[in-house]
Fold this sequence. Notes:
Blueprint: E1 2-8, E2 19-25, E3 28-32, E4 38-40, E5 45-48, E6 54-67
Antiparallel strand pairs: 1-6, 2-5, 2-6, 3-4, 3-6
Amino acid sequence: MVVKFQGEFPFHKHDNSDDFFLVLEGEVVMEYEDHDDVIFGPGELVIVPKGVVHRPRAEQEAKVLLIEPKGEPNSGDSDRPPAEKATI
């Protein structure tokens, strides 16, 4: 799914799947609990391995392609409700 967001998600992890982010527009900072942040922009991607605690953040609005298994909440194990996913 393609999403646009600004601000930050809470720190979270996905126990059963990797998290795939491809930036289409803007700049995203991927913050990690246990190592340095990664900054990536249009055409760049980050894959967060399953079980790794992370938080995506965008100072300005960013458009990002996310690839996730059906039924996997994009908010992982945080208390934040997941974004709705359109069904086709």
